[in-house]
Amino acid sequence: xxxxxxxxxxxxxxxxxxxxxxxxxxxxxxxxxxxxxxxxxxxxxxxxxxxxxxxxxxxxxxxxxxxxxxxxxxxxxxxxxxxxxxxxxxxxxxxxxxxxxxxxxxxxxxxxxxxxxxxxxxxxxxxxxxxxxxxxxxxxxxxxxxxxxxxxx
Length: 153
Fold this sequence. Notes:
Elements: H1 2-5, H2 11-21, H3 36-49, H4 57-80, H5 114-152
Helix pairs in contact: 2-3, 2-4, 3-4, 4-5
């Protein structure tokens, strides 16, 4: 497994690996602590260690895309798995990804035709916007859960 294979792997690779592995959900008898939330936690740990949301203008676009991948995955898991308490405190610049963040892939895609690539980029930008709504839903779920616990005690 790439994540555990080398101690000196750069944090960007660790973030990417953690996000990919977070899509996998182990079945018993796998260790319960290595569920998808565990891997998202590791992605945020590495993202915070390099302050992924900040950076020079040359590398900022790619870092912003990866940061938003972390944010989207975190918010998606919090809402879908009904775990609003797992939502991370996120530092954002308030700036959503744009076509410009995809750099040369926006004009000369490597693996898709240009219309398909543009649709994929647009879909990701809208997914980031949707994740902001997901965060509000997760916060609301947490408030409702806390309120119901308070009323029952």
